[in-house]
């Protein structure tokens, strides 16, 4: 991830280093980081944010977050493609600011969270797409159905103990038997996540 | 033929009358089922959307009906109705015409004030905008009650209206019901006379 040093990433890095030298005694680093520096196993922390939105006709839509989730990932220092990620979220914890919408999402109409307690993602392949970006492909299982999906990942921030990414993905819901409300509500769910990992 | 005449209803009045009648009765049943019965949430969502689309259809037809009522002439009441009966009938009809507008407008207000902010996508064809009203739980529950009260009041008045029509048809044997079915109602008394003379003819 860090091997290619673009202008942008070195600028970001300079900023990180400045922050680190100012605030973090342990993170001080004089030289450019190598991917191997970020290598390791991480647990996804509760400070992460799993945000989603579904557009509706005429503008606006439903947006919310999943409050409960867990997961881990491993960054392979020698070969980024051999890195992996596992993620589980609990649809029961969906928050939208409107109780009736939350109840509807948990109901048999959408997640059926009483029957299917989790939504899981397991990576199958990871491809670096830029100096600080990658594409993660894997299997998403929701409501008992498993499909291949793809998310784009951007490195946001890191030090020698923690790392954070911005992850985006557009998931069609009809293949999972969750097409209720289309076409008033889009068939596409946009995920916009901030994933923070803590080294283990 | 399209317009009302001095003594009969035209097709515009007759067709609007029965279309609106069928739709309102269906919407009352649909409204009750979708709101009061335990349903699969996915089906319930669809039924609400059908309810709104058919409800808007009634609103458009009721607006035509109200305009027609104001613009077209009113046929004279059938002979044999007392002044009180005429006044009762006229008042009932005017209230029904207003309710056919007020019920869907109050439903539109429910959709517009609801914090769910669900668009009204007319038969998945085009979006009918919300009324410019502030969304809040208080406003939504107010309009939900108003819509419900107006809807069931309409059911009550429709029942009264239909009973009156049947009373005229069955007991009084006059043209009140028949003339809302055809633009050229044969006089029922004459009709009966011809029928009985046919029977007599057959017997011969
Ligand atoms: C003549 C037309 C209509 C009739 C006869 C009608 C009748 C009804 C009835 C009987 C109910 C159930 C009330 C209850 O049991 O409490 C209902 C609920 C409802 N109607 Fe209508 N309706 C009409 C038009 C509309 C329109 C045009 C809309 C919206 C655009 C609409 C939106 C609603 C909504 C949202 C509810 C449910 C309220 C809730 O669950 O909070 N209705 N309607």
UniProtKB/TrEMBL annotation, chain B:
Cofactor or coenzyme needed: heme b
Keywords: Cell membrane, Electron transport, Heme, Iron, Membrane, Metal-binding, Transmembrane, Transmembrane helix, Transport
GO biological process: respiratory electron transport chain
Name of the protein described by the UniProt record: Cytochrome B
Keyword Translocase tagged: no
Species this chain originates from: Ensifer adhaerens
Domain Cytochrome b561 bacterial/Ni-hydrogenase span(s) in chain numbering: 9-182
Electron transport listed as a keyword: yes
SUPFAM superfamilies listed in its UniProt record: Transmembrane di-heme cytochromes (SSF81342)
The organism's taxonomic lineage, starting at the top: Bacteria, Pseudomonadati, Pseudomonadota, Alphaproteobacteria, Hyphomicrobiales
């Amino acid at each position: 991830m860090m091997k290619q040093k673009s202008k942008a990433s070195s600028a970001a890095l300079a900023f990180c280093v400045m922050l680190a030298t100012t605030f973090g005694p342990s993170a001080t680093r004089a030289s450019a980081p190598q991917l191997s520096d970020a290598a390791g196993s991480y647990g996804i922390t509760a400070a992460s944010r799993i945000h989603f939105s579904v557009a509706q006709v005429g503008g606006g839509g439903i947006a919310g977050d999943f409050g409960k989730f867990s997961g881990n990932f491993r960054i392979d220092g020698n070969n980024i493609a051999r890195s992996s990620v596992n993620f589980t979220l609990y649809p029961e914890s969906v928050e939208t600011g409107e109780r009736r919408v939350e109840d509807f999402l948990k109901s048999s109409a959408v997640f059926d969270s009483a029957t299917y307690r989790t939504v899981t993602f397991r990576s199958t392949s990871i491809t670096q797409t830029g100096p600080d970006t990658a594409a993660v492909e894997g299997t998403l299982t929701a409501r008992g159905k498993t499909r291949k999906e793809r998310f784009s990942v951007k490195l946001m921030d890191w030090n020698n103990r923690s790392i954070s990414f911005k992850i985006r993905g557009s998931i069609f819901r009809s293949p999972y038997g969750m097409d209720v409300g289309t076409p008033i509500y889009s068939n596409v769910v946009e995920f916009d996540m901030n994933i923070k990992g803590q080294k283990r | 033929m399209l317009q009302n005449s001095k003594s009969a209803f035209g097709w515009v009045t007759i067709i609007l009358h029965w279309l609106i009648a069928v739709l309102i009765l269906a919407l009352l049943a649909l409204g009750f089922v979708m709101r009061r019965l335990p349903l699969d949430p996915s089906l319930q969502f669809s039924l609400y959307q059908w309810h709104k689309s058919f409800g808007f259809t009634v609103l458009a037809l009721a607006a035509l009906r109200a305009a027609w009522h104001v613009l077209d002439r009113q046929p004279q009441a059938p002979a044999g109705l007392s002044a009180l009966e005429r006044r009762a009938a006229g008042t009932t009809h005017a209230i029904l015409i207003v309710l056919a507008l007020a019920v869907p407008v109050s439903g539109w207000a429910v959709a517009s004030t609801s914090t769910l902010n669900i668009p009204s996508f007319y038969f998945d064809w085009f979006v009918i905008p919300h009324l410019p009203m502030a969304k809040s739980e208080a406003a939504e529950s107010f309009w939900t009650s108003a819509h419900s009260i107006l809807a069931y009041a309409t059911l009550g008045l429709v029942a009264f209206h239909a009973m009156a029509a049947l009373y005229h048809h069955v007991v009084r044997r006059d043209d009140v019901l028949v003339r809302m079915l055809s633009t050229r109602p044969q006089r029922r008394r004459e009709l009966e006379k011809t029928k009985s003379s046919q029977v007599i003819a057959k017997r011969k």
